[in-house]
Amino acid sequence: MIEDMDTAVLKSGSNLERVLSEGHFAVTVEIGPPMDSNGEIVLEKSRLLKGMADAFNITDNQTGVVRLSSIASSVLIMKEGLEPVMQMTCRDRNRLAIQSDILGAAALGIRNCLCIAGDHQSFGAAGKLKGHPGAKNVYDIDSIQLVAALKGMRDDGVQQGGDSLEKRPQLFIGAAWTPLGDPIEIRPLRLKKKVEAGADFIQTQGVFDIDRFREQMKVIVDMGLHERTAILAGIIVPKNLGMLKYMNSSVAGVSIPESLITRMEHVRSSAGDDKKKAREDQEEEGIKITVELIEHVREIPGVSGVHIQAIEWEHRVPEILKRAGLIPRPALHKGG
Amino acid sequence: MIVAERKPLSEIKSFIENYKKILIVGCGTCATVCLAGGESEVKVVASGMRIGFLKEDREVEILEDCITRQCEPEFVTPLVERVKNEGVEAVLSLGCGVGVNFLADKLESVPVFPGVNTEFFGAAIEPGVWVEMCAGCGNCILHLTGGICPIARCSKSILNGPCGGSQDGKCEISPDVDCGWNLIVERMKKMGTLHRLEEIVPPRDWSTSRHGGPRRVVHEELVTQPEAEATG
Q: What whole-number distance in Å separates Cα of residue A9 and Cα of residue B26?
């Protein structure tokens, strides 16, 4: 009976929604699909990460590189008992394709969707891969319009064009937010628009500058936005000095405090000429930094969880979450 | 204006090398102003072609012309007459793509080749530098964005920007590209209208743009014969 009532209140019935609605500090972890048709890789990552998070983001051709699709990868991880957050970019699909995929995803049992613009196709993994820089992009609708379209389908039972839906897709709707992106003064306003459009949860760009993030979160809390959406702070696991420096200079919206760079520099130079030790020590320091970042953002008012991105380094995530005291996760109890 | 850039001479030569009498025609309006296909560029291309054919010991007659606008019958009709009367085998247009198309529609069997790449609608922000400023999308929303176009000047043409890829006023695609939404925000800040960006702009109707198929504009008062007759 209670469970029935509970289900009635929930918008999607997803585990992520449940965990957040019960007031737990949520954890999501990103899984990057492979660049080929090897679904086994997705399954392996799933087995490695099972039980480590409340839901797992499946990226959608991230950094403008063709990968096993987010919808198929989402279904693959569901086979292993993980709950996906299917990412959906506006770069590759027009409103017809997006809504069609959303209906398909819902029919396949996917309950969370993250709505994002998507990196421009010129990215090609920041020049490390060929990618498809000559592709024609779509951007028929933007991420905020996508959030609104999904909300319309779920809550009003209408497609964006106005045709009605009999069976509505039950989705927990997410959006991304770059709290420290330029121009900085527009960022709270943009978050507000995402919330107004219908974002149930937010996953932020990777946070390293805790002080500036805290200031920005204060603005958000003063606006009351944290009460209307669940904000999960983005945590990118830094592997080494090069990655920190690269993110600081080249990834929009990510700024790394000098102190963190100095700290990593010190670790690397302390290892001397021993390259293996230098690598291992930097990795260990990266994990320490990650755990500290998690602890810091956890204390910031308005933050409801963390979203961990360990790019092609997913196997270290269990250790990070264990050290951060975030496992075991709240038990998934099925409603209905 | 329409901004174009001249194609490499080698590419141009490859289009016309099988003809013996070629007319190179410039355009006196946009293509002239953006230094892609005016009178002087016609001279440059003509000399380049002459030298190229001379090196190969080939006799090719190259005629030069430059008309005020390649997009209006008033100027194009005499040119078409000249092509017919002088037995021109092929036309190389240094006008924008509109000029090439318009000539193709009128020239019947005589081929017309493009001598320039037509780039965009833009302005000269400094001598020698042109920047895209309008996408010709058929439903202007500049009143919402401080007069700066997110369709033309944002790499993702998003209507509720800026996305997370804006850094130090530049777009994520290149440090050489201004973030259009940063320009919008800065401009609206100066005008004291930043709060207007709080409103969610709904998905737009792209049918007014190219996505709705080839477009036309009709001023009824200027149409000399009924529209139905004109289109057959």
A: 69
At A23, is the secondary structure helix, strand, or coil? Answer: coil
Q: What is the DSSP letter of B225?
A: S
Q: Measured between alpha carbons, how far is B102 from B4 in angstroms, rounded to an integer? A: 17
For residue range A105-144, list pLDDT tens digits in order: 999 999 999 999 999 999 877 788 999 999 999 999 999 9
Query: Domain span at residue B24?
Result: 2-119
Predicted-complex ipTM score: 0.93
Q: Do A144 and B160 touch (CB under 8 A)?
A: yes
List, as ranges, residues 62-91 from A with C-beta within 8 Å of B.
90-91
Q: Where are the extended beta strands (E) located within B68-110?
A: 90-93
Say what the pLDDT of residue A1 is.
39
Dist. CA A12–CA B106, nearest whole Å: 61
Tell whether the model's pLDDT for residue A323 goes beyond 70: yes
Say if the Cβ atoms of A140 and B203 lie within 8 Å.
yes
For residue A96, pLDDT over 50 is answered with yes
pLDDT at A180: 97
Residues B20 and B111 in one domain: yes
**Residue B41 shares a structural domain with residue B103:** yes
A132 in reach of chain B (CB within 8 A): no
Same-domain status, B41 and B70: yes
Q: Identify all chain B residues contacting A141, using CB atoms and an 8 Å cutoff.
A: 203
A95, A122, A140 member nearest B173 (Cβ): A122
Per-domain residue ranges of chain A: 2-323
Tell me, yes or no, whether B148 and B47 share the same domain: no
Contact between chains at B200 and A197 (C-beta distance less than 8 A):
yes
Does the beta carbon of A197 lie under 8 angstroms from any beta carbon of chain B? yes
SS3 label, residue A233: strand
Q: Which fold has domain A2-323?
A: TIM Barrel (3.20.20)
pLDDT for position A126: 79
Reported pTM: 0.94
